[in-house]
Amino acid sequence: MKSSKTLTRVRISDIVIMLIVGVTMIICLVPFLHIIAISLSSKQEIMSDRVTIFPRGFDWHAYEIVFQDSRMLWSMGLTIVLTVTFTVISMLMSIFAAYPLTKENLRGRSFFMMLIVFTMFFSGGLIPEYLLVKQLGLLDNLFSLILPGMISAFNLIILRTFFLTIPASLEESAHLDGSSHIGTLIRIVLPLSMPVLATLSLFYAVTRWNGFMDALFYITNSELYPIQLKLYQVVMNSMVTDLTAQEGAAQMDVIPEGIKAASIMFATAPILIVYPWLQRYFVSGIMIGAVKG
């Protein structure tokens, strides 16, 4: 009787979890499918407000306009380079900061950890950060989009916690064989840390790819606009176009909503393509990195 009741409870809990996951997926997917449908629908169907989650009057014209915009393509290429550079530098800095903090013989280790945790709760704010970037001469410079957010305290703590789960005997054996700390890190620690490295790389890449507030503050040269800031301009220009259309101005060949939706998909597609390759590391990397610490 007890076993049957236990099985019943387990089945009910599984059903509840499945329902929660299903509802969450629907909530997340419906707006996304709606954007895709608008980007692929004709202007007449969009204007009549008949587009839901399926395209109506299939039309590629909005994507043609986006791909013919050389400034949009330049921003995309620039953002890809910026994201890759930011991710590589951030991961290197996080690794070189997290690994020494796992050593018990490191003097001041607790003090350094306290400083790192302190930055998660308190910061100088936007104005001091802007003044610092200005004093460093980084305005209208891509390094203003890299240096301020180069290390995340949250990601650093996760990485350090993961390193602590690696058996110390492996490192001791490497040291007995004459390996240096850098050699042990490269040959022993990093190969065993691929799940968390892939997960944190995804975190850093998504953070940089989706960031536009720092570019809005620090970048005024349109040649240095990342894709999200370019997308922000498209959305704002679409709002202006809507207002002029309401005042009787000439209509565009493709209404702003279609261009805006196509631009959103253009800016989102690269992350959607990369994510499935790293998804298998995502859960294991976060769970293992959160167990000990």
Automatic annotation (TrEMBL):
CDD domains: TM_PBP2. It is a multi-pass membrane protein. Belongs to the binding-protein-dependent transport system permease family. Pfam families: BPD_transp_1 (PF00528). Residues 76-276 form the ABC transmembrane type-1 domain. The chain crosses the membrane at residues 12-40, 73-99, 111-133, 145-163, 184-206, 261-278. This is Carbohydrate ABC transporter permease. It comes from the Bacteria. Its main location: membrane. The keyword Metal-binding does not apply. It is found in: Cell membrane. PANTHER family: ABC TRANSPORTER PERMEASE PROTEIN MG189-RELATED-RELATED (PTHR43744), POLYGALACTURONAN_RHAMNOGALACTURONAN TRANSPORT SYSTEM PERMEASE PROTEIN YTCP (PTHR43744:SF9). Keywords: Cell membrane, Membrane, Transmembrane, Transmembrane helix, Transport. The keyword Transmembrane helix applies. InterPro entries: MetI-like, MetI-like_sf.
